[in-house]
Specification:
By secondary structure, the protein is of the alpha+beta class. Strand 5 and strand 6 form a beta hairpin.
Length: 202
């Protein structure tokens, strides 16, 4: 019975979006309000999680240290990654690779990222929000992040945005993570650092 319940929870977790639809345009202030790592906080529903994360961002605008996050919130943190074009694709495609790391085993991780490009005074969506769910191997495999070993390390790698030309634009991205730990649901949210990249939006 317990096994069947766990299977149901994981299946439900896999098909549920990591985040609600984002607004088409956001301000410069919103993009720059939080540029560092985020703890995963416990919440039953998304709205509650976003309120908690808003409060954390106000208290720690440059992100919270892993040590402080583990002590106050739980074993996992979400780290942003800057937009870059892929050398392997001749710099014609770009994306971000946010990373979730945990000091303890978890039973499910899902991340979703939305690219944004600066258009005059606002930041507009570029492409659609892309989700990725950790598979069993991802959850069993640890790894190093910034020279420290973690029990779980999961990187979103499926963002492949096709550039339109090579004119330089300012890029960022918002990423939200959701995971299951000891039967609880935890959420995190980060904003990528602003970078000028030779990649045009379409």
């Amino acid at each position: 019975m317990a096994c069947a319940t766990l299977t149901f929870l994981l299946l439900s977790f896999a098909v549920t979006p990591a985040t609600a639809s984002e607004t088409d345009e956001v301000s410069e202030e919103k993009i720059t309000s939080s540029q560092g790592p985020s703890p995963y906080v416990e919440a039953d529903i998304e709205e509650e999680a976003m309120r908690k994360l808003d409060a954390i961002e106000k208290e720690h605008p440059q992100g919270i240290s892993a040590q402080a996050a583990y002590k106050r919130y739980g074993p996992c943190t979400l780290h942003p990654a800057g937009f870059h074009t892929r050398k392997s694709a001749g710099h014609k495609y770009g994306g971000v690779k946010p990373v979730t790391v945990c000091t303890k085993k978890v039973t499910g991780i899902k991340m979703a990222s939305q690219l944004r490009v600066k258009n005059s005074l606002i930041w507009a969506k570029a492409g659609i929000q892309i989700p990725q769910t950790a598979n069993d191997k991802d959850l069993r495999t640890g790894g190093k992040y910034k020279k420290k070993y973690y029990t779980v390390k999961f990187t979103q790698t499926n963002i492949n945005y096709k550039c339109k030309g090579t004119k330089t634009h300012k890029w960022s991205a918002s990423s939200i993570g959701r995971l299951r730990y000891q039967g609880r649901t935890l959420w995190a949210r980060v904003t990528s650092p602003i970078l000028s990249v030779q990649c045009g939006p379409h």
